[in-house]
């Protein structure tokens, strides 16, 4: 049997370009091994740097097909995995123990679907193979627990009378002020008290080795946002908006706020971009068109994706089974997963934080 050209094999692998980073797999450093046995069997090991389970199967098929066209190849084995790294936060703050990356999901104003986006984004990243947690930082109006279907009155367990254990649901680790109070108890607190509560929720929760912690921020640019920027190692922010002009104005303010505190804005999610009639399927841009893309261009960031205004999104979220888990094969779930992959891929291009904090160890006599 003629010797198989290694250069030809590498060229075949290079023909596949990553759909989110627009680079070949060698440029990404994703090819970990390329071996050929005497019988012409080729094995390739690929490790992507972002949450990508949804495209792994297609990638395997495409690369296998290209390799099989190389002269002398009798068969292929393509293995695709992922490894998510910790990336640097603002002002090189030390990352949290057990949490690689913190992503703040924010909006300049309320009513744009930020919490719905946060929950579905967390679920989408989980579906893409990442370990994910979500923290409800809206101290005054927490809603993440209800959206995830966690019953009112369910309380997190504790460890050592010092740490809360997050409640796990749909594969996501969740923590919220709503888990520590009743649904009818208002948080009548001044700003510093709410900010302190956020810090406690974040640092006194024993997160279990997360790739990503999604923080669902309250709307606006107040005390809690400033506390997050000054005292929490945020890897990046996502801004949620709708296409209408008043929402875009507040969206710009949110981006400017994160820029001032040196938190990189990873992209913009345009929610309610198209209304889809539940009876006839007619699509109409009720709130305008192209606003999210214009803002992203103005601030040299990207439009991560557009989501429709559809009754099923609201119904599924209200029922505690958001779209990504209620209808995983639907167009809405597909869009959320595409946004999750794009976000994770964008984050993977940032400088890595290779210095992780040493976990604290307590010693007792018993």
Structural features, described:
- The chain has 366 residues and is of the alpha/beta class.
- It has 2 domains: 7-82, GMP Synthetase, Chain A, domain 3 (2-Layer Sandwich), CATH 3.30.300.130; 90-348, 3-Layer(aba) Sandwich (Rossmann fold).
- It has helices spanning 6-14, 53-68, 114-127, 144-147, 191-203, 223-231, 245-260, 291-298, 311-318, 323-326, 331-348, and strands spanning 31-36, 41-48, 75-82, 99-106, 132-136, 158-159, 163-164, 167-169, 172-176, 210-216, 236-241, 265-270, 275-276, 283-284, 303-306.
- The strands form 4 sheets. The protein has an 8-stranded mixed β-sheet with strand order 8-9-5-10-4-11-12-15, sandwiched between helices. A 3-stranded mixed β-sheet has the order 1-2-3, with helices on one face.
- A hairpin with a 2-residue loop joins β8 (167-169) and β9 (172-176).
- α3 packs across α11 and α5 (191-203) packs across α6 (223-231).
- The termini are far apart.
- Mean pLDDT is 87; it is low at 358-366.
- Give, in spatial order, the strands making up the sheet with the most strands: 8-9-5-10-4-11-12-15
CATH class category label of the largest domain = Alpha Beta
* Total number of strands: 15
CATH H-level homologous superfamily name of the largest domain: P-loop containing nucleotide triphosphate hydrolases
Give the N-to-C terminal Cα separation.
68 Å
Q: Provide the succession of SSEs.
A: HEEHEEHEHEEEEHEHEHEEEHEHHH
Count of alpha and pi helical runs:
11
> How large is the share of residues in beta strands?
15-25%
Q: Could you name the ranges where pLDDT drops below 50 across 5 or more consecutive residues?
A: 358-366
Q: In angstroms, what is the radius of gyration?
A: 22 Å
How would the global form be characterised?
globular
Level of helix content? 25-40%
User: Which whole number gives the mean pLDDT?
Assistant: 87
Oligomer: single chain
Biggest pleated-sheet summary: 8 strands, mixed
């Amino acid at each position: 049997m003629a010797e198989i050209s290694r250069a030809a094999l590498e060229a075949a692998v290079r023909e596949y370009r990553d759909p989110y980073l627009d680079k070949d797999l060698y440029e990404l450093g994703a090819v970990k091994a390329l071996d050929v046995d005497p019988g012409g069997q080729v094995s390739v090991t690929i490790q992507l740097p972002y949450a990508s389970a949804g495209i792994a199967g297609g990638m395997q098929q495409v690369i296998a097909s290209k390799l099989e066209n190389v002269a002398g190849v009798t068969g292929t084995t393509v293995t695709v995995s992922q490894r998510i790294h910790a990336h640097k936060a603002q002002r090189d703050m030390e990352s949290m123990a057990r949490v690689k990356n913190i992503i703040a999901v924010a909006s300049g104003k309320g009513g744009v679907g930020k919490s719905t986006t946060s929950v579905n984004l967390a679920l989408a990243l989980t579906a893409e193979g990442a370990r994910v947690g979500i923290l409800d930082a809206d101290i005054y109006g927490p809603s993440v627990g209800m959206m995830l279907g966690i019953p009112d009155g369910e309380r997190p367990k504790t460890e050592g009378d010092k740490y809360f254990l997050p409640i796990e649901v749909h594969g996501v680790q969740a923590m919220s002020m709503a888990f520590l109070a009743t649904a009818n108890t208002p948080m009548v607190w001044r700003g510093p008290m709410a900010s302190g509560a956020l810090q406690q929720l974040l640092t006194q929760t024993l997160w279990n080795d997360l790739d990503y912690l999604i923080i669902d921020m309250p709307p606006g640019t107040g005390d809690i946002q400033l506390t997050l920027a000054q005292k929490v190692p945020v890897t990046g922010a996502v801004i949620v908006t709708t296409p209408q002009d008043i929402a875009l104005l507040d969206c710009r303010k949110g981006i400017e706020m994160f820029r001032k505190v040196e938190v990189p804005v990873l992209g913009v999610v345009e929610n309610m971009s198209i209304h889809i009639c539940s009876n006839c399927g007619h699509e109409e841009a009720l709130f305008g068109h192209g606003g999210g893309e214009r803002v992203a261009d103005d601030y040299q960031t990207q439009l991560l994706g557009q989501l429709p205004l559809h009754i099923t999104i609201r119904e599924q979220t209200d029922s505690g089974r958001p779209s990504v888990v209620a209808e995983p094969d639907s167009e809405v779930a597909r869009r959320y997963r595409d946004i999750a992959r794009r976000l994770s891929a964008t984050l993977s291009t940032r400088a890595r934080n290779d210095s992780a904090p040493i976990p604290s160890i307590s010693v007792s006599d018993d």
